[in-house]
User: What shape does this take?
Amino acid sequence: MATPEEHAAHNAESEARILSDIEEHGFHIALYNGDGYSPSFAHTIGLYKTYGYPELICFGFSLELLHSVLWEGKRLLDKQPEPDRNVGYPDFLEGFHVRFVTVDEDRYPDYFGYAGWFYKNWDFPALQIVWPDKQALYPWDEGFNPDWKAAQPLLDRDHDFKFREERNVAVFTTRQVLDGLPILRVVHESDGDWQFLCDTTYDVADLKVVALEEIVKRDPTLNELFQLNYGWHAQREAVGEKWQTEEHEIEEDDTEDTEETE
Assistant: This one.
């Protein structure tokens, strides 16, 4: 686990690089590797300040390809500062088709962290570049490849349900939670199963299976854990308190990695 000093040094280095790129190129591209559960993604910083364009974000590709997609997105904005949300853009990048959707401002803190630092607020427009599957279907189309759905969360909708799984996926909870006790512990198993527990019982007889959407409706603050990786768990003292997250399964060398969510 990185120390506070190491975090501060990393942030200072990143912020300096952002400012340098914006001065030299007019904008910066922030790149984020996937972790096995959350997909890789990239977004721009500075397009709005320099050119008056929306910031851009895209998910699911290699970092190299994401970098190229966002540069091509900037070139398209040079020609058309307000892309049409109702049509696709064929041959966007060497035969690559895309659509643009408007990012819901409620999703900015989830993905545009350094852009928020740069602008000192969330007062900027943003568009998501969305790509189709091999059948030319987009994530909102019936029949879109389900294996690709989690790789490309749509940021123009579902701010009340941020999890990557389908709303009706079965998850584990307890009879006590369904009776009204708060959820204080969440486990995301290595096999993808979710557990939402009250932390008062671990009796198998108390376990219940419900739809993920039902749990999130009961406690919308669970959306804070939508990026909890496989094999990790989170705990809190009470609803509204910060989640403490750590690896659920101890590695062979017995090391642990712990962090506090923002």
